[in-house]
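Side project, low priority. Logging it here so it doesn't get lost.
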Amino acid sequence: MIREARGGMLRAVSIRVVRLGSKRTKGEGLRLGTVRRPPRAVPKSEWARRDFYDVWLPDLAPSDALLKTAQSAVLDERSWKAFARSYRKEMAQPTARRLLALLAALSLETNLAVGCYCEDEARCHRSLLRALLVESGAQVE
């Protein structure tokens, strides 16, 4: 979606899905950490400066129990599908649904980024979060 910014210039607004700790891109906007735990050995005062996140939003991360199950299992296709079903079930709860709706609405007005630490997005909850945001009406890059 294109919005008119101050001064009459047009700009695209959306949500980017990123790996936390990766270098920020120009115009990325506020970075939200959708992870259960803050980065290890990094003081809270350094989270944003080190490109982890500006705001911690653990309510969109897998629950502790689901995270432990995923980390202890070999994520073959069957295990991944089971994880995906369980994560989607957690994200169907009222608090998560409201947060997804909020992010979807905000994505129409401003740039945001959401992310996790995992190296491979294809086997990370952020790939599922991307789909959930789109299903919620978000503009996702």
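Brief comment: The two ends are 10 Å apart (CA to CA).
Revisit when time allows.
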